[in-house]
Amino acid sequence: MTHIVAEPCVGCKYTDCVVVCPVECFYEGEQMVYIHPEECIDCEACVPECPVEAIFHEDNLPEEWKSYIELNAQKSEECEVITEKKEPLADD
């Protein structure tokens, strides 16, 4: 199982979560970050760091955001890995 970045991250893109990830499984898109499902070790270190509560365990993902499972898998293959905190979009 893995964790999923969902809808609340869109347009915010806080990166507090990426600096606590021990396996560097976060990838940066234009409007949000994504978790690579095969790299995530399910440690949950990122969950409390997200100020908009956008990270969910796959089993606890709200039904309306189930499409984010595939979106995270797809985009994490296309985007660049992110390991350092950056200015969020929400503060622009």
Automatic annotation (TrEMBL):
One annotated GO molecular function: metal ion binding
Q: Which cofactor does it need?
A: [4Fe-4S] cluster; [3Fe-4S] cluster
Cite the 4Fe-4S ferredoxin-type domain residue spans from the record: 1-30, 31-60
Highest taxon of source: Bacteria
Q: Which residues form a coiled coil?
A: none
Q: Where are the transmembrane segments?
A: none
Q: Which PROSITE patterns is this protein grouped with?
A: 4FE4S_FER_1, 4FE4S_FER_2
Enumerate the UniProt keywords alphabetically: 4Fe-4S, Electron transport, Iron, Iron-sulfur, Metal-binding, Transport
Any keyword Isomerase? no
Briefly state the protein's biological role.
Ferredoxins are iron-sulfur proteins that transfer electrons in a wide variety of metabolic reactions.
Protein name as annotated? Ferredoxin
Q: Which organism is it from?
A: Stieleria neptunia
